[in-house]
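Our preliminary data section would be incomplete without showing what the modeling component actually yields. Below, a chain of 289 amino acids is followed by its predicted structure, encoded as tokens that our downstream tools consume directly.
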Amino acid sequence: MVRPTEQRAVHSHNWSLLGRCFLWCLLAALVAVLLFRLGAPIILLLLFVVCPVAAVWLYAMSERPLPVPLDPCPGTRGRTLNWIAPWYEKCCARLGLAHAFRVCLIEVSGIREGDHVLDMGCGTGRLACLAAYRAGETGRVCGIDAAPDMIRIAREQPMRAAVRPRFELAIAEALPFPDASFDVVLASFLLSALPPDLKLTALKEASRVLKPEGRLVVAEIDRPASLVGRILGATLGLSTKLRSHIHGRTDQILQSGGFVPLRAANWRSSIGIWNCRNAVSANPEGPRS
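Predicted structure:
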């Protein structure tokens, strides 16, 4: 937990950093206006505006204080959202993926008092906090993410639950937990951040840490239903990480990872929620001859 004096120092540093970034951007804009008045070509104007803004952004991201000590960042070929961590919750709210969406996931998961829950790709930890509230004093909730700033923010989240979730810097394809540790594993928009081979690796890891009767709850982008969604999906589908989900093949991915997927709910027509059981526990006798 960050002490009040450290928080004040962080806020003071951030305001100072914001002021310096604003001055750099203002200087870049003045140079661009001057070049425009002198008849400079448009490409030169773009270079004088885009490059300084990009440089200022990178400078700001590298200069931010790191008040919460973390282990070394794990390597992954998946996509992390470390750069957007300070604005992650605002983005979720704009996209309709904030509190109501998370409550829907918790309801689908069926978390009960005393359950052990893992949130894979926990982001800023809001979903894990809701899970902890449902699991109660006798439960245990862990959240993992590969983005250091997400974990820092998650560890500073205010809590209403009796037991605070434990947040760790880790990757879904190599979970730092023993076998059969959890009753429920949550994975919201995790698979679409991983390349095809790591999707299966992460699912096998989820299967490993789940108890025999455990449940995996997955929320993922699905085949768009609207015209605008299909146009946007055609662009997003260029990414190998997103393509299979945009084309509606999340069920097949879950089956390939060793789960029996059940479509439990839809969210705003373009997001699917699956409640999955381990294929072995769902059919303990195996295939009949």
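The first strand starts at residue 116 and ends at 120. DSSP finds eleven helices and seven strands in the chain. Preliminary results of this kind motivate Aim 1 of the renewal.
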